[in-house]
What we know:
Blueprint: E1 2-6, E2 9-13, H1 17-23, H2 26-31, E3 35-36, E4 50-51, H3 68-85, E5 89-98, E6 101-106, H4 113-123, E7 127-131, E8 134-138, E9 141-144, E10 147-151, E11 157-161, E12 167-168, E13 171-178, E14 186-187, H5 190-202, H6 204-207, H7 218-234, E15 239-243
Parallel strand pairs: 2-3, 6-13, 13-15
Antiparallel strand pairs: 1-2, 1-4, 5-6, 5-7, 5-8, 8-9, 9-12, 10-11, 14-15
Amino acid sequence: MKIAIKNGISLLKAEDDYENKVLKSDYLKSKLVYREILKNENSICEKDFFKIKLDYNLFKIDKDSVYYGRIGYVLRVILDAYIVLLGGLPLHAAAICHKKMTYFLIGNTHSGKSVISNYLKNYYKNIDLIGDDHLVIFNNTLFGNDKSRIRRKDGSEYYKENFLGEKKLGKYCICLVDINDSSRFEKIEKNIAINLNFRNTLKYLCENKEIFLENIEMKNILKIYFIRYKHFFYNSIKIIKITNKIMEK
């Protein structure tokens, strides 16, 4: 697979039929901010791409199938690392825009980011859901994953399209989400919020212990990220905690 990163957007180009299938999958579109470069598309010079080779035997769960989630994880670690080096801020979060305000929903896996962001999109007018899992801020512009993966109560899943495009980032509020928490809605001090949610927001780079990138020291990336991340929190209008109380009605 060939990869280029331009202005914060990851550009991915398949080199075989299986990679083409992965790039077109709803799953990858729900986990990664990217644009697929078609085989005959010449908008990006070949010299701007770098190449990774995926050994599909490492991803197999049986003789006939390859696990998309594992490939998505590998790509997420690689792309987030390069985005940080290029000056961007990748986030494991959801974002909705209403008028000129952006609301970032930050929380761990299964904390309710997708549930709440899609709930607000469905029941209130003039709301754009930018992404619900992978966000990238680059040069004050916000990008998000193209599709949301929604889990039903019975364990089944379905996909919905998000806002397809980019948004200039102006004023924003950070919402710490946990619908498993029964405590009340409240305002949180910024320094407390930063220490509580750093690993949740970065997630993939923090949890990675097996993917090594040549000439890139992951510890240095995390240091750069944390400085940028603190600025992101301190520049927010306010930070609030959202629990399952918001869903009671």
